[in-house]
Amino acid sequence: MRVVIAEDSVLLREGLVRLLADAGIETAATVGDGPALPGAVAEHRPDLAIVDVRMPPSFTDEGLRAALRVREENPGMPILVLSQYVEERYATDLIGGGAEGVGYLLKERVADVAEFIDAVRRIAAGGTVIDAEVIGQLLGRRRGGDPLGELTPREREVLGLMAQGLTNGAIAERLVVTDGAVEKHISGIFLKLGLQPGEGAHRRVMAVLAYLGHR
Description:
This protein is an alpha/beta fold. It has helices at 10-22, 37-44, 62-73, 88-95, 113-124, 132-140, 153-163, 168-175, 179-192, 202-213, and strands spanning 2-6, 26-31, 48-52, 79-83, 102-106, 128-130. A 6-stranded parallel sheet has the order 2-1-3-4-5-6, with helices on both faces.
């Protein structure tokens, strides 16, 4: 696997390169600002781009905008966005163009090397990994007429794990239930969100988008 990293902090950038190398993942290029990212991706054609949200020159959302541009120019390009703080809008904006191959993690997660490398591999393979703290804050905002309000506590928990990119088997293992129980909960989620069987595998992505994007 080959990655491109966009991160203005030299210390974190070099740390990421070392962590990835130890896991057998090659860093094809590194850049220190958002505008340089699309060019690096076009030149090196990596399997994944790892991007800091806030970078020069304004330290607002340069990284996010660069990530969105990369996805526009390279449909399906896996993107992992790293942020210092929980910023719900950024997660929603990123996943709004399609949940496959998208990740949004707090930088502190890098400290858990095994979890971080697992997230990198899952995103590169087309999975969706959204930080648990972001999911928790989004879940806490749900009120009143929200369609998600019809979900049971267990269905909300299952949907949250789906948003993190876990498979049915992984969800079952996390919740210590059977695969059949997870499938039943997911069927209930689809039904309550009005996602019809004819929509196929896209129902899972649409459920995650509803979870992350509804306000």
